[in-house]
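Help!! Second protein's tokens look totally different from the first
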Amino acid sequence: MHKLHDVSTVKRKKMSDIFSVSNLGPILNAEVEFGDLTILTGPQATGKTLFLESFALFCNSKYIAYDFLESNGISSDTKTFLDYYYGENMHNIIQTNTVFNFLNRIYSPNNLSTEISENIKMWMQQKYPLNFDVVLPNAYYIPAQRSLAISEGRIKTSDDFINSPYSLVKFCKFLQDYVKKNQTELLKDKIKDFEFFKASKINMKRNAGSPRLEMTVDNQTVPYMAWSTGQRELAPLLMSIEYFEKYTPKSYIIIEEPELGLHPRAIIEFMLTVLQIMQTGTKVIISTHSSTPLDFVWTIKHLKENGAKTSELSKMFDFKIKDKSVFDNIFEKTFKTYYFAPDKKTKKVTTKDISSLDVYSEDEEIASWGGMSLSADRAGSIVSKF
């Protein structure tokens, strides 16, 4: 029987890592081979979050087992653990025929309980090092609900999210730690690449009550609730990325729906941040309902296929990029895109590799980038008749 493993304890394969899931919630079969940048698309409620949460569970198993032990004492009941990790009453998503395949190891519910119990037992017997630095997550997770972690400028605590998914609870803890370790101006280097943060400074107001985020623009203080939706969405995203870069190992970073609240121009600006992360060797995984990240990847593929210089990619941005090294070796990176496709009759979901992003493909799901361009295609078809 195999125990759950951290990525750090497993020798990395030369090829991209593969993770697959069968019979999990709406997912019938989902398999993804991770590239340097992997994008997951598909309609809402097709299991993308469940897939990513499950991948992070296997990557971060020792760390999660420790947190579970801290929260639930010596309990190693599978139902309790699954509700702790996926969220209240979510244990039912795992059925008797659920199967996970992580780094070519097969995991089924039949031995999951024992594996959970043994991981917890190892902590109780101090068989794992108690220095957190050696077991920090190898898959750093930024959930789509990230804006919920901040209320009127105050970073919420994990106590505010009892029974919520582990990814959100942990995200709050990372943000709390971030503001403790950064006492002065926040995101000084991060926000300069975003037009709607130009001439802005973000600080924590600490002189009364709970510390709260505030922004200064042209010497005028702007309270958190007066920020734009995009600013309130982007700030916790960038804070968590800066925390990741400074304090955690760099194996994978999972970013759910980075486009939330953002104009396409800001999404493109965010893709520069993605390139910066990729240059560190970290593999980036994004789930999205926006075509903009796919436009960006398609441009990279097209430039490469036509022998262009990597510096041409800078024309995607509306501002001058001082450090062009962010584009170094970009054509040598691997880009993967997968569509979580629901069956029209059964509604069960399977994945399709649409990495070619071939707009001339006879396969509609590939040509439309998983349905991303269907609306524009249909509008064009209608208008062309008149």
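Here's the second one for comparison:
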Amino acid sequence: MPIRFDVLTLFPEIFHGYLSQSILRHAIERGLVEVHLWNFRDWAKGKRKNVDDRPYGGGPGMVLMCEPIIAAVEAVQAKAQPPGHLVMLTPSGERLTQRLVQELAQHPRLLLLCGRYEGFDERIRILLQPQEISIGDYVCNGGEVPAMVIIDTVIRLVPGVLGKSESLVEESHAEPGLVEYPQYTRPRVFRGLAVPEVLLSGNHKQIAQWRRQQALLRSQQRHGSCSNSPAESPSASKGVSQHEEQCADRSDSHPRQNVFPSSHTTS
């Protein structure tokens, strides 16, 4: 049974190019994923099909109105069974993590509610009681790109979508806080940087150990959140290549700029 996404938005045309590319397109063609697009304006009244209005109390921007949004959600829910799990893309929602993606992937049908402008009238949230999700503390013009992130991350967990299921086990965040080990391909040496010898050894046990150690090391360096047992401590790892040490030195000499979250209207 395929997983079904119903995307409710003011700008369904944003998704046309996205749906025609890469893994998602192949998954749709093979019947593993369905994506249906719905325009809020189709449930708006009047000649102008207005879906937004000025906020009570004053202030900049416009707010999405209760009537067309709730009418759209209820109509789309009735178009198929089950009615689906409703997700509202909002900056005040729960932060999207791989754990949350795994939970979303358990639902056979997801309705993704994309905001715009100054967001939704609060009564929409109260009446529909959606799961509220944010993809991060930064500004998006609308909920369409966050909806694409939800689709992209969830379909990877649908059986048959990826070529090799092993990819899910070894990629970043398969374990909470753990990022993937570094990858290499040809040539063996590029601009003086050589592929670590252990990867050329053919010893699968040593390669697996090296990759695990590198994943732990990277996780600790980048997030500082990966708790390691003494047996898995990155400081005890062997086989760290010379050019990785050089890259670390370069990184230290060019520290990352701190980015602070800002308030935003739609995520």
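Reply: Different proteins will give different token patterns, so don't panic. The CA atoms of residues 18 and 148 lie 8 Å apart.
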